[in-house]
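Me: Here is a favour to ask of a fellow structure person. Could you put it straight underneath, so I can go through it closely?

Assistant:
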Amino acid sequence: MSGNRDHETVWAIGTAVKVGEDPGIDGIVTGLMIEQKGVQYRVAWFDGGMRREEWLLKREVRAAGSCRVIRIGFVEGGGKGA
C-alpha cells in the first residue's frame, strides 16, 4: 500500500474496465493485489478469439462506465489471536 495509509479504495472484482489507450479494449477485473508500490488488477479480455489475462498497474486500466468501488485494508490488532 502506498504511504502510511491502512486502506486502499479499489474496484470490485467483476468491474468492467477499459485496457490501454482510448478507445481501449473491454475487460473485466478478475483479481486484485495490493503491494507496497500500489494496486494491481488482474484483468481478462478477448484479443480476437483468444482470451488473455494479465496483471496490470492501476494506471493502465480505467473504469468502463459506472463501477462499484470497495475499501480494503488492515485493522491493527483486529485479528483473532493478535
Remarks:
- Strands lie at 7-11, 16-19, 25-35, 38-47, 50-57, 61-63, 69-73.
